[in-house]
Automatic annotation (TrEMBL):
Protein name from the UniProt record: GNAT family N-acetyltransferase
GO molecular function term, any single one: acyltransferase activity
EC number: 2.3.1.-
Taxonomic source organism: Amycolatopsis heterodermiae
Domain of life: Bacteria
Keyword Coiled coil (UniProt): no
Top enzyme class: transferase
Alphabetic keyword roster: Acyltransferase, Transferase
Record lineage: Bacteria, Bacillati, Actinomycetota, Actinomycetes, Pseudonocardiales
InterPro entries, sorted: ACT-like_dom_sf, ACT_dom, Acyl_CoA_acyltransferase, Bact_Acetyltransf, GNAT_dom
Annotated PANTHER family: AMINOALKYLPHOSPHONATE N-ACETYLTRANSFERASE-RELATED-RELATED (PTHR43877)
Amino acid sequence: MPQHGQPAAVEEPATPSAWRVRVRMHDHPGTLARIAIRLADLECNILGLTVLPVPGGVLDEIVLRPATGLPRRLLVDAIREEGCECTAIIDADVHELVDSASSTLAAARRAVDDPARLAEVLKEVLAADVVTLVPVTEANPARTESGHRAVFELGADTALVARRQWAPFVQLELTRAESLVMLLTAAARNVAGPVVLDRPDGAAIVLRKGVPGDADAVSELHRRCSMATLFRRYHTGVRTVPRRWLHRLLMPPRGTSVLAVFGREVIGLAQLIPTAAGGAEISLLVEDDWQRQGIGTALLARLAVLAEAQGITELTADCLAGDDVMPRTAARAGLRTERGSEDGAKLRLFLPA
Protein backbone atom coordinates (compact mmCIF):
# COMPACT_ATOMS: atom_id res chain seq x y z
CA MET A 1 0.00 0.00 0.00
CA PRO A 2 1.22 3.57 -0.66
CA GLN A 3 2.45 5.53 2.34
CA HIS A 4 0.35 8.42 3.66
CA GLY A 5 0.75 11.49 1.48
CA GLN A 6 2.08 9.57 -1.54
CA PRO A 7 -0.06 9.22 -4.65
CA ALA A 8 -1.22 5.73 -5.53
CA ALA A 9 0.58 4.13 -8.46
CA VAL A 10 -1.38 4.35 -11.69
CA GLU A 11 -1.93 0.88 -13.18
CA GLU A 12 -0.69 0.76 -16.76
CA PRO A 13 -3.15 -0.53 -19.36
CA ALA A 14 -2.48 -4.04 -20.58
CA THR A 15 -0.49 -4.33 -23.78
CA PRO A 16 -2.87 -5.17 -26.64
CA SER A 17 -2.79 -8.75 -27.77
CA ALA A 18 -1.98 -9.80 -31.32
CA TRP A 19 -4.74 -11.00 -33.61
CA ARG A 20 -4.70 -13.34 -36.56
CA VAL A 21 -7.27 -11.95 -39.01
CA ARG A 22 -8.40 -13.73 -42.16
CA VAL A 23 -9.89 -11.59 -44.93
CA ARG A 24 -11.43 -13.02 -48.08
CA MET A 25 -11.25 -10.63 -51.02
CA HIS A 26 -11.26 -10.45 -54.80
CA ASP A 27 -7.76 -10.36 -56.24
CA HIS A 28 -8.10 -6.84 -57.65
CA PRO A 29 -5.39 -4.15 -57.61
CA GLY A 30 -5.71 -1.81 -54.66
CA THR A 31 -7.97 -4.02 -52.52
CA LEU A 32 -5.29 -4.89 -49.98
CA ALA A 33 -4.13 -1.26 -49.90
CA ARG A 34 -7.63 -0.11 -48.95
CA ILE A 35 -7.77 -2.71 -46.17
CA ALA A 36 -4.38 -1.52 -44.88
CA ILE A 37 -5.63 2.08 -44.79
CA ARG A 38 -8.73 1.08 -42.85
CA LEU A 39 -6.56 -0.83 -40.35
CA ALA A 40 -4.35 2.25 -39.96
CA ASP A 41 -7.43 4.38 -39.32
CA LEU A 42 -8.32 1.98 -36.50
CA GLU A 43 -4.73 2.30 -35.14
CA CYS A 44 -3.91 -1.34 -35.88
CA ASN A 45 -0.27 -2.20 -36.50
CA ILE A 46 0.25 -4.87 -39.18
CA LEU A 47 2.96 -7.34 -38.12
CA GLY A 48 2.73 -9.99 -40.82
CA LEU A 49 0.87 -10.93 -43.99
CA THR A 50 0.34 -14.25 -45.79
CA VAL A 51 -1.63 -14.57 -49.02
CA LEU A 52 -3.48 -17.87 -49.46
CA PRO A 53 -4.96 -18.49 -52.93
CA VAL A 54 -8.55 -19.78 -52.82
CA PRO A 55 -11.17 -20.32 -55.53
CA GLY A 56 -12.60 -16.98 -56.69
CA GLY A 57 -10.00 -14.77 -55.03
CA VAL A 58 -7.49 -14.78 -52.20
CA LEU A 59 -7.55 -15.22 -48.44
CA ASP A 60 -5.20 -12.78 -46.75
CA GLU A 61 -4.06 -13.75 -43.26
CA ILE A 62 -2.99 -10.61 -41.42
CA VAL A 63 -1.28 -10.70 -38.04
CA LEU A 64 -1.77 -7.36 -36.35
CA ARG A 65 -1.56 -5.61 -33.00
CA PRO A 66 -4.94 -3.91 -32.41
CA ALA A 67 -5.46 -0.58 -30.68
CA THR A 68 -6.18 -0.88 -26.98
CA GLY A 69 -9.86 -1.58 -26.43
CA LEU A 70 -10.70 -2.05 -30.11
CA PRO A 71 -13.83 -4.22 -30.41
CA ARG A 72 -13.50 -7.06 -32.90
CA ARG A 73 -16.94 -6.23 -34.27
CA LEU A 74 -15.70 -2.78 -35.34
CA LEU A 75 -12.82 -4.37 -37.26
CA VAL A 76 -15.18 -6.79 -39.00
CA ASP A 77 -17.49 -3.94 -40.03
CA ALA A 78 -14.61 -1.87 -41.42
CA ILE A 79 -13.43 -4.77 -43.57
CA ARG A 80 -16.97 -5.38 -44.84
CA GLU A 81 -17.31 -1.73 -45.85
CA GLU A 82 -14.40 -2.28 -48.25
CA GLY A 83 -16.30 -5.08 -50.00
CA CYS A 84 -14.33 -7.88 -48.27
CA GLU A 85 -15.27 -10.56 -45.76
CA CYS A 86 -13.57 -11.12 -42.42
CA THR A 87 -13.84 -14.89 -41.99
CA ALA A 88 -11.99 -15.24 -38.67
CA ILE A 89 -10.29 -13.34 -35.86
CA ILE A 90 -8.33 -15.29 -33.24
CA ASP A 91 -5.58 -14.48 -30.78
CA ALA A 92 -2.00 -14.85 -32.03
CA ASP A 93 1.41 -15.00 -30.36
CA VAL A 94 3.84 -12.41 -31.71
CA HIS A 95 6.77 -14.41 -30.33
CA GLU A 96 6.04 -17.11 -32.93
CA LEU A 97 5.65 -14.62 -35.78
CA VAL A 98 7.96 -15.98 -38.50
CA ASP A 99 7.38 -16.61 -42.18
CA SER A 100 5.48 -19.80 -43.01
CA ALA A 101 8.43 -21.51 -44.74
CA SER A 102 10.76 -21.06 -41.77
CA SER A 103 8.00 -22.08 -39.37
CA THR A 104 7.25 -25.28 -41.31
CA LEU A 105 10.94 -26.22 -41.57
CA ALA A 106 11.44 -25.68 -37.85
CA ALA A 107 8.37 -27.81 -37.17
CA ALA A 108 9.70 -30.56 -39.45
CA ARG A 109 13.00 -30.56 -37.56
CA ARG A 110 11.18 -31.07 -34.25
CA ALA A 111 9.12 -33.93 -35.68
CA VAL A 112 12.20 -35.65 -37.14
CA ASP A 113 14.00 -35.35 -33.81
CA ASP A 114 10.96 -36.64 -31.90
CA PRO A 115 8.44 -38.56 -34.08
CA ALA A 116 6.12 -38.90 -31.09
CA ARG A 117 5.44 -35.14 -31.37
CA LEU A 118 4.10 -35.32 -34.94
CA ALA A 119 0.50 -34.63 -33.90
CA GLU A 120 1.63 -31.64 -31.83
CA VAL A 121 3.75 -30.33 -34.71
CA LEU A 122 0.96 -30.74 -37.26
CA LYS A 123 -1.41 -28.91 -34.91
CA GLU A 124 1.01 -25.97 -34.87
CA VAL A 125 1.59 -25.96 -38.66
CA LEU A 126 -2.16 -25.97 -39.36
CA ALA A 127 -3.09 -23.69 -36.44
CA ALA A 128 -5.59 -26.45 -35.69
CA ASP A 129 -7.69 -26.77 -32.56
CA VAL A 130 -6.86 -30.44 -32.15
CA VAL A 131 -4.97 -33.21 -33.98
CA THR A 132 -5.57 -36.81 -32.96
CA LEU A 133 -3.98 -40.12 -33.94
CA VAL A 134 -6.55 -42.75 -34.94
CA PRO A 135 -6.60 -46.14 -36.67
CA VAL A 136 -6.83 -45.62 -40.42
CA THR A 137 -10.09 -47.56 -40.46
CA GLU A 138 -11.66 -44.82 -38.32
CA ALA A 139 -10.19 -41.82 -40.17
CA ASN A 140 -12.99 -41.36 -42.76
CA PRO A 141 -11.17 -38.86 -45.04
CA ALA A 142 -14.39 -38.13 -46.98
CA ARG A 143 -15.81 -36.42 -43.89
CA THR A 144 -14.47 -32.87 -44.26
CA GLU A 145 -17.06 -30.99 -42.16
CA SER A 146 -17.14 -28.14 -44.71
CA GLY A 147 -13.36 -27.85 -44.66
CA HIS A 148 -12.99 -27.84 -40.88
CA ARG A 149 -11.65 -31.43 -40.77
CA ALA A 150 -8.71 -33.00 -42.61
CA VAL A 151 -7.13 -36.46 -42.58
CA PHE A 152 -3.46 -37.33 -43.14
CA GLU A 153 -2.65 -41.03 -43.47
CA LEU A 154 0.67 -42.09 -41.92
CA GLY A 155 0.71 -45.57 -43.41
CA ALA A 156 -1.42 -48.66 -43.64
CA ASP A 157 -2.46 -48.58 -39.98
CA THR A 158 -2.75 -45.04 -38.59
CA ALA A 159 -3.80 -41.53 -39.58
CA LEU A 160 -3.88 -38.05 -38.08
CA VAL A 161 -7.20 -36.18 -37.97
CA ALA A 162 -7.02 -32.38 -37.72
CA ARG A 163 -9.97 -30.17 -36.74
CA ARG A 164 -10.29 -26.41 -36.67
CA GLN A 165 -13.42 -24.45 -35.75
CA TRP A 166 -12.18 -20.89 -36.23
CA ALA A 167 -11.70 -21.21 -40.01
CA PRO A 168 -11.83 -23.95 -42.67
CA PHE A 169 -8.55 -25.30 -43.98
CA VAL A 170 -7.50 -23.98 -47.38
CA GLN A 171 -5.69 -26.04 -50.00
CA LEU A 172 -2.31 -24.33 -49.51
CA GLU A 173 -2.35 -25.23 -45.81
CA LEU A 174 -3.33 -28.83 -46.55
CA THR A 175 -0.60 -29.14 -49.19
CA ARG A 176 1.96 -27.80 -46.71
CA ALA A 177 0.84 -30.32 -44.07
CA GLU A 178 0.84 -33.21 -46.57
CA SER A 179 4.40 -32.30 -47.60
CA LEU A 180 5.43 -32.35 -43.94
CA VAL A 181 3.94 -35.83 -43.45
CA MET A 182 5.63 -37.08 -46.66
CA LEU A 183 8.97 -35.70 -45.47
CA LEU A 184 8.68 -37.49 -42.14
CA THR A 185 7.66 -40.73 -43.87
CA ALA A 186 10.74 -40.48 -46.09
CA ALA A 187 12.89 -39.77 -43.04
CA ALA A 188 11.49 -42.86 -41.31
CA ARG A 189 12.28 -44.99 -44.37
CA ASN A 190 15.82 -43.62 -44.36
CA VAL A 191 16.15 -44.54 -40.68
CA ALA A 192 15.27 -48.12 -41.64
CA GLY A 193 17.96 -48.25 -44.36
CA PRO A 194 21.12 -50.39 -44.21
CA VAL A 195 23.90 -49.48 -41.78
CA VAL A 196 27.53 -50.63 -41.97
CA LEU A 197 29.12 -51.24 -38.58
CA ASP A 198 32.39 -49.46 -37.90
CA ARG A 199 34.56 -52.26 -36.51
CA PRO A 200 38.24 -52.09 -35.51
CA ASP A 201 38.94 -55.42 -37.24
CA GLY A 202 37.63 -54.05 -40.54
CA ALA A 203 34.97 -56.76 -40.96
CA ALA A 204 32.20 -55.44 -43.21
CA ILE A 205 29.05 -56.23 -41.21
CA VAL A 206 25.83 -54.73 -42.48
CA LEU A 207 22.62 -54.26 -40.48
CA ARG A 208 19.61 -54.28 -42.79
CA LYS A 209 15.94 -55.16 -42.92
CA GLY A 210 15.12 -58.81 -43.42
CA VAL A 211 13.22 -59.89 -46.57
CA PRO A 212 11.65 -63.22 -47.64
CA GLY A 213 14.67 -63.96 -49.84
CA ASP A 214 16.79 -64.32 -46.68
CA ALA A 215 14.93 -67.46 -45.58
CA ASP A 216 17.71 -69.92 -46.48
CA ALA A 217 20.42 -67.78 -44.85
CA VAL A 218 18.34 -67.46 -41.65
CA SER A 219 17.77 -71.22 -41.64
CA GLU A 220 21.55 -71.72 -41.84
CA LEU A 221 22.02 -69.24 -39.00
CA HIS A 222 19.87 -71.44 -36.76
CA ARG A 223 21.72 -74.57 -37.88
CA ARG A 224 25.06 -73.03 -36.82
CA CYS A 225 23.77 -71.90 -33.40
CA SER A 226 24.27 -74.06 -30.31
CA MET A 227 21.37 -75.55 -28.36
CA ALA A 228 22.11 -73.14 -25.51
CA THR A 229 21.88 -70.10 -27.81
CA LEU A 230 18.63 -71.33 -29.36
CA PHE A 231 17.16 -72.10 -25.93
CA ARG A 232 17.98 -68.56 -24.73
CA ARG A 233 16.11 -67.19 -27.75
CA TYR A 234 13.11 -69.55 -27.95
CA HIS A 235 12.98 -70.99 -24.39
CA THR A 236 12.44 -74.45 -25.83
CA GLY A 237 14.60 -77.25 -27.16
CA VAL A 238 14.31 -76.29 -30.83
CA ARG A 239 17.24 -77.39 -33.00
CA THR A 240 15.96 -76.56 -36.47
CA VAL A 241 13.40 -73.98 -37.54
CA PRO A 242 10.38 -75.22 -39.53
CA ARG A 243 10.13 -73.61 -42.95
CA ARG A 244 6.80 -71.99 -42.07
CA TRP A 245 8.49 -70.11 -39.21
CA LEU A 246 11.07 -68.44 -41.40
CA HIS A 247 8.66 -66.05 -43.07
CA ARG A 248 7.29 -64.90 -39.69
CA LEU A 249 10.82 -64.41 -38.38
CA LEU A 250 11.72 -62.22 -41.37
CA MET A 251 8.34 -60.49 -41.80
CA PRO A 252 6.70 -60.48 -38.35
CA PRO A 253 3.07 -59.28 -38.31
CA ARG A 254 2.97 -55.48 -37.87
CA GLY A 255 6.69 -55.55 -37.13
CA THR A 256 10.10 -55.69 -38.75
CA SER A 257 13.27 -57.74 -38.60
CA VAL A 258 16.89 -56.59 -38.71
CA LEU A 259 19.68 -58.87 -39.90
CA ALA A 260 23.40 -58.70 -39.22
CA VAL A 261 25.05 -59.85 -42.44
CA PHE A 262 28.69 -60.76 -43.02
CA GLY A 263 29.35 -61.50 -46.68
CA ARG A 264 26.52 -63.84 -47.66
CA GLU A 265 25.96 -65.17 -44.17
CA VAL A 266 23.35 -63.95 -41.72
CA ILE A 267 25.10 -63.94 -38.33
CA GLY A 268 22.40 -62.23 -36.27
CA LEU A 269 18.64 -61.69 -36.29
CA ALA A 270 16.55 -59.19 -34.31
CA GLN A 271 12.82 -58.47 -34.29
CA LEU A 272 10.75 -55.42 -33.34
CA ILE A 273 6.98 -56.01 -33.03
CA PRO A 274 4.82 -53.07 -31.87
CA THR A 275 2.08 -53.91 -29.37
CA ALA A 276 -1.43 -52.53 -28.93
CA ALA A 277 -0.33 -50.90 -25.66
CA GLY A 278 2.09 -48.58 -27.48
CA GLY A 279 5.31 -50.45 -26.72
CA ALA A 280 7.09 -53.16 -28.69
CA GLU A 281 8.38 -56.68 -28.15
CA ILE A 282 11.94 -57.47 -29.18
CA SER A 283 14.11 -60.55 -29.62
CA LEU A 284 17.75 -61.20 -30.47
CA LEU A 285 19.69 -64.15 -31.87
CA VAL A 286 23.44 -64.02 -32.57
CA GLU A 287 25.51 -66.91 -33.89
CA ASP A 288 27.85 -68.38 -31.24
CA ASP A 289 31.08 -67.57 -33.11
CA TRP A 290 30.05 -63.89 -33.29
CA GLN A 291 28.92 -63.45 -29.70
CA ARG A 292 30.77 -61.03 -27.38
CA GLN A 293 31.84 -58.98 -30.42
CA GLY A 294 29.21 -56.25 -30.20
CA ILE A 295 26.80 -57.73 -32.75
CA GLY A 296 23.93 -58.09 -30.27
CA THR A 297 24.56 -54.60 -28.92
CA ALA A 298 24.51 -53.15 -32.45
CA LEU A 299 21.28 -54.99 -33.29
CA LEU A 300 19.57 -53.83 -30.10
CA ALA A 301 20.71 -50.25 -30.64
CA ARG A 302 19.29 -50.45 -34.16
CA LEU A 303 15.96 -51.68 -32.82
CA ALA A 304 15.94 -48.72 -30.43
CA VAL A 305 16.41 -46.30 -33.35
CA LEU A 306 13.56 -47.90 -35.29
CA ALA A 307 11.35 -47.86 -32.21
CA GLU A 308 12.06 -44.19 -31.54
CA ALA A 309 11.16 -43.36 -35.17
CA GLN A 310 7.73 -44.88 -34.46
CA GLY A 311 7.27 -42.97 -31.21
CA ILE A 312 7.91 -46.07 -29.07
CA THR A 313 9.78 -45.48 -25.82
CA GLU A 314 9.45 -48.82 -24.01
CA LEU A 315 10.46 -52.30 -25.18
CA THR A 316 9.90 -55.73 -23.63
CA ALA A 317 11.79 -58.97 -24.08
CA ASP A 318 11.32 -62.52 -22.83
CA CYS A 319 14.27 -63.21 -20.58
CA LEU A 320 14.78 -66.30 -18.42
CA ALA A 321 15.24 -65.69 -14.70
CA GLY A 322 18.94 -65.54 -13.90
CA ASP A 323 19.89 -64.84 -17.54
CA ASP A 324 21.79 -61.56 -17.60
CA VAL A 325 22.81 -61.56 -21.29
CA MET A 326 19.97 -59.30 -22.45
CA PRO A 327 20.32 -56.83 -19.53
CA ARG A 328 24.06 -56.52 -20.17
CA THR A 329 23.47 -56.07 -23.91
CA ALA A 330 20.85 -53.41 -23.22
CA ALA A 331 23.19 -51.53 -20.89
CA ARG A 332 25.87 -51.45 -23.61
CA ALA A 333 23.23 -50.15 -26.06
CA GLY A 334 22.40 -47.30 -23.66
CA LEU A 335 19.03 -48.65 -22.50
CA ARG A 336 17.81 -48.80 -18.94
CA THR A 337 16.24 -52.13 -17.91
CA GLU A 338 13.79 -53.31 -15.30
CA ARG A 339 12.64 -56.85 -14.47
CA GLY A 340 8.93 -57.65 -14.52
CA SER A 341 7.25 -57.86 -11.14
CA GLU A 342 5.60 -61.27 -11.68
CA ASP A 343 8.16 -64.00 -12.34
CA GLY A 344 11.01 -61.90 -13.73
CA ALA A 345 10.65 -63.52 -17.16
CA LYS A 346 9.76 -60.20 -18.78
CA LEU A 347 12.46 -57.58 -19.15
CA ARG A 348 11.44 -53.97 -19.75
CA LEU A 349 13.86 -51.75 -21.66
CA PHE A 350 13.50 -47.96 -21.70
CA LEU A 351 14.82 -45.69 -24.45
CA PRO A 352 16.75 -42.61 -23.29
CA ALA A 353 14.47 -39.61 -22.68
